Amino acid sequence: MPAIEVNGKSYETDEEGYLVNLAEWNEDVANYIAQVENVAMSSNHWEVVNFLRKYYDEYQIAPAVRVLTKAIGKTLGPEKGSSQYLYELFPYGPAKQACKIAGLPKPTGCV
Amino acid sequence: MAAEIKAPALRPLPLAPPLLPGAMAGSRPYVASDKMQQALGFPGELAPDWQPKALAKMGELLGRYRSLRVFLDACVHCGACADKCHYFLGTQDPLNMPVARQDLMRSVYRRHFTLPGKLFPRLVGARELTREVLDQWYTYYNQCSECRRCSVFCPYGIDTAEVTMAAKEIMDSVGLGQKYSNEIIAKVHRIGNNLGLPGPALADTLQGLEEDVKEETGADVRFPLDEAGAEVLLVTPSADFFAEPHVDSLIGYAKVFHAAGIRWTLSSKASEAGNFGLFIGNYEQLRAIALRVREAALELGVKRIVVGECGHAWRVAYSFWNTLVGIGGGGRDPFARQLQQQLDPRYRQPMHICELTWDLIQRGALTLDKDANDHRIVTYHDSCNVARASRMGDLPGGQFTLPRAIIGAVVNRYVEMAPGTTHEQTYCCGGGGGLLTDELLELRVKGALPRMEALRQVADQHGVNFMATICAICKAQFSKVLPYYGFKMGMVGGVHQLVSTAIRLHAQP
């Protein structure tokens, strides 16, 4: 299995760089993955990442795009509650790229 | 004297592109892990005796599916299919010519299952199934989306998709499975859908949609889940719950049910229309996945089963559900008979959501405001499995006319793409058949070329800014690849997304 090394500690990932053990996630790992993905983490990025983790804790799945945009609209303001804004934050797509940084598994299926 | 005659400039013919041998030799999807394989009852990895096992499986399939033997025997290499594949046109790799792709298996078939191949292998192009050949199978059978466009042009009617499916089945049976499809199939069994969306998350998502639609329209449109006694069970791709633009069609279905006063429900058990058992050519998985729908229908006591916008799901539902599980006449086991008695014979079983909506439109049961879609100039992309493996309505070609009739009822401005790129000759989106995965993105972008060319033409000449389709894979694939061709991601959407925009609801008193 591939792995990444952050602060001298090794973290197992899958072929695409998604963390295998969710519990191992921490902010340094998130920053490292973001760097690999060419995403410069701002407080708004963290807002998304933290919401994803909170939602996943409760439901064992990443939130649907609409659920996410609505939640972000509430915290960051209605003009930011759009998938367009989320794509600005995470150009490869909020579902996949943000999940990767948040340490969640990749959403599968026809998405 | 007449004015000098000038010949017009010659226009480039649509010739087959020059060949780039080996161009896509490095394109391979991730291999399924041993755990993913074993979850489906396949060996975890290639064992030392994989070769005799693979040949035994091939022999079994040749006995089970006479069609496969005919397809392997019948080809005369006329070349009619050669330039019909979107992946060949986009990648120029000669092994993506359908005839060459099939020959990867045909050569092995000749060596081991025909007399000339056993006696004089080199004279008839017969090859041993070596590890190198197996790897070539894995590479190039995972560059076929099983869309069957080539079959339309084959004078013998060879169904290349069936050869691809057989190859995938053989590879799975010896432990060489594809991660994307097999991981998803295991999720369907474990959680109920391709996404892995558990019941509580689904309930939360649907509740959010009720709030959204209430805010937008003022009407109490419901998105019911697991409601016993509903008339209709809607089975739809789980992407409809999760992704954009898919969710806009889900909202469209809900509005149609609401406006028509039909009591409907979704099921957390059958929260997926897709059936990736088809993609991997495995009958047992195809049936096991379909059985969830029957179980849900029996438990909920519904009278009708309606399928949402999902291309290959409609192929499986329309063509196979009857004998697989008894939705429609044909299944003979006790549960199939029980379901056949339960379902209302006055309706087509199963029914496509487009059939349901079109029936309602014809009866004048929906109030539609076409002008609401005036910001859109629409074209329609026929999805491969709907176009070439199913039908809708009562007349031949209904799978082409019904979606277009619905669009005609909800938009004012509609433009067809070029003949030869639509209807039964439609091009695949480039992401079907279990190839909608990130590591195959180069293949997906290149495979979308012919569709993008046709879209570019109507966009430039007629200002088309919306391409409607009725398949979750098409929607996800186009959302991803449109920007590579200079289009906006949001340019693709569902037919019921257009219905959703046009439909007028009367708020409950």
Structural write-up:
By secondary structure, chain A is mostly helical. Chain A has helices spanning 27-36, 43-59, 65-76, 83-89, 94-101, and strands spanning 3-6, 9-12. Chain A has a single domain, classed as DsrC protein, C-terminal domain (Arc Repressor Mutant, subunit A), CATH 1.10.10. In chain A, helix 2 (43-59) packs across helix 3 (65-76). The two termini of chain A are 25 Å apart. The mean pLDDT of chain A is 95. The N and C termini of chain B lie far apart (82 Å). Chain B has 23 helices and seven strands. In chain B, strand 6, helix 22 (472-481) and strand 7 form a beta-alpha-beta unit.
How would you describe this structure in keywords?
heterodimer, A: 111 residues, mainly alpha, Arc Repressor Mutant, subunit A, B: 509 residues, Fumarate Reductase Iron-sulfur Protein, Chain B, domain 2, Rossmann fold, 3 domains, four-stranded parallel β-sheet, 7 strands, globular
What does the secondary structure layout of this molecule look like, with pairings?
The complex is a heterodimer of chains A (111) and B (509).
Chain A lengths: L2 E4 L2 E4 L14 H10 L6 H17 L5 H12 L6 H7 L4 H8 L10
Antiparallel strand pairs in A: 1-2
Chain B lengths: L33 H6 L10 H15 L1 H9 L11 H6 L6 H16 L1 H5 L11 H11 L7 H5 L6 H14 L5 H13 L7 H19 L14 E4 L3 H4 L3 H15 L3 E2 L17 H18 L3 E4 L3 H15 L8 H9 L8 E2 H10 L15 E3 L3 H6 L8 H13 L30 H7 L1 H14 L3 E4 L2 H10 L10 E3 H8 L7
Parallel strand pairs in B: 1-2, 1-3, 3-4, 5-6, 6-7
Helix pairs in contact in B: 2-3, 2-9, 3-9, 5-9, 7-9, 13-23, 14-15, 17-19, 19-23
